[in-house]
Amino acid sequence: MIQRDIFVSYSQPDRECAFKLVAQLEADGLGVWIAPRDISPAADWAEEIIEAISAARIMVLVFSSHCNDSPQVRREVERAVHRQVPVLPMRIEDVLPARSLEYFLSTQHWLDAFPPPREPYYARLSTHIASLLHATTGTRAAFVPQPIRADTRTPCDPAALELLEKQLAYHVGPMARVLVKRATVKASNREDLIRLLAAEVDSAPARQQFLDACR
Fold this sequence. Notes:
Layout: E1 6-9, H1 15-27, E2 32-33, H2 45-55, E3 58-63, H3 65-68, H4 71-82, E4 87-91, H5 99-105, E5 111-112, H6 119-135, H7 158-172, H8 176-186, H9 190-198, H10 204-214
Parallel strand pairs: 1-2, 1-3, 3-4, 4-5
Helix pairs in contact: 1-6, 7-8, 7-10
């Protein structure tokens, strides 16, 4: 199995740029994960993205004005920060992040890829990432997907699980369904389940809001 150390996040209008960057990275021998190319047929989209982010050692964000308007990009960046995956923004426009992204990206080191042509920037970024990965070899364990274990424990009835999913979705978006499914396998009771789900909410005030709503 190819080890995909790099997760590329992008907004749909920047698809062409993102895939040209991927072509450069892979030509230089680096393992890259990008949607929708690497999502298995009939797979759960959110689950595959969460697993790919967890597996990555670095996220490259193809940043443009379109990212500021993309809830999907924001969720991916949030998950990377939550999983302690470094985020490396590559700006393809001279724009700054909106408030929804500024908290996560304002202290990062930007790499600019403008004005065109972008190909020299792609090559420079690829060299930079290769050196970063080489310098941090062994600091993040290779990701090995694990199957969902069969488990007869039911910490909540279906109606209660659905309610918890809705409460969590308010804070983390559609990936809530995947997170609830995973936590249900691990939890021994309802309180344990709520505790596991609360840990997925990054902001302390929002986490407390989730806990209050559940209890």
